[in-house]
Every structure is written in structure tokens, then in C-alpha cells.
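> example.struct
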């Protein structure tokens, strides 16, 4: 396995030192910022998100569009709306590195499990489509949830 860390962050110097000290240069690659994330996702077998905070983690949605199983800490917002634990990936209790390591090892060692997760990555993506989101906003703004009917505020273009 080779691990690719896309992007930069405040811990880069620490990561570089740990990589050098443990002779992981061939196994753990820090790419820095990349413009074509899709190129990496097309080749990825697992996507791991270790964020401490997120709003809606678009990176998980992007990984799922490429049918890449996701593993993430179950932080306050985001991952549990995207990952169905044990169905299309794993949700790990926040910051439990031991559990993260165990679940990643399990997924890396079990090709059938990885394939099963991959087959279910798109099961629930429809709720994140633009037309679904616009429909929810229209319901909220027009008051249709209370039975009122008004002209939609937003419409999805067909382009």
C-alpha cells in the first residue's frame, strides 16, 4: 500500500519528520496542493478523512462518486450524513486512532469487503444532488411543509 496525503496543512513539517525518521518515503507521500484530485480518486482503493472539524465534507462525496470506500472519524458534523457505517465505509469514534488503524487494516486485508463497500458508495448520493437540495430549500422557503403551495424560489437548470 502507498498512502497519498493530498493538500497542505499546519502539521506538514511534523509529518515530513516522522516520514524521514521511520523511512516511509516510498510508502507515505505528501503531494501538497493538487489541482486534479479526480486523477488520484480514480486510482484510490480507500479514502481516509481524519479531519477534526468539517461542515459538509465534499471530499467524501467526491470519493464516493468514484466508488471509493471511505473511512472517517465520526466528528460532530458531516461524515455520518455521508458514510453508512459498515455499508459503504467505516465511521470511527472521533480521534480513536487505534480503532482507525484496526478498521483500515481490516479493509486493506479484505478485498471482498472493500468491493462490497465500493458497490454501495452511491446508494444514498441522490440526496446530495442539486435538484434534491433545491427542493428542500423550496420547501423551507415556500412553507410547503405546512401544506402551502407557492411558486419555487429556485429551479435547477438542465445545462
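> example.seq
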Amino acid at each position: 500500500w502507498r498512502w497519498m496525503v493530498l493538500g497542505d496543512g499546519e502539521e506538514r513539517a511534523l509529518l515530513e519528520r516522522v516520514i524521514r525518521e521511520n523511512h516511509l518515503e516510498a510508502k507515505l507521500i505528501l503531494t501538497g496542493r493538487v489541482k486534479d484530485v479526480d486523477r488520484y480518486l480514480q486510482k484510490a482503493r480507500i479514502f481516509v478523512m481524519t479531519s477534526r472539524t468539517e461542515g459538509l465534507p465534499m471530499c467524501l462525496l467526491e470519493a464516493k462518486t468514484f466508488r471509493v470506500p471511505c473511512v472517517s472519524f465520526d466528528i460532530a458534523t458531516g461524515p455520518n450524513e455521508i458514510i453508512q457505517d459498515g455499508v459503504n465505509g467505516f465511521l470511527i469514534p472521533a480521534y480513536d486512532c487505534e480503532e482507525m488503524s484496526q478498521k483500515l487494516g481490516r479493509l486493506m486485508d479484505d478485498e471482498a469487503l472493500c468491493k462490497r463497500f465500493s458497490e454501495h458508495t452511491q446508494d444514498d448520493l441522490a440526496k446530495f444532488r442539486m435538484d434534491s437540495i433545491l427542493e428542500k430549500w423550496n420547501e423551507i422557503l415556500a412553507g410547503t411543509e405546512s401544506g402551502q403551495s407557492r411558486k419555487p424560489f429556485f429551479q435547477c437548470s438542465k445545462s
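> remarks
The chain has a mean pLDDT of 90.
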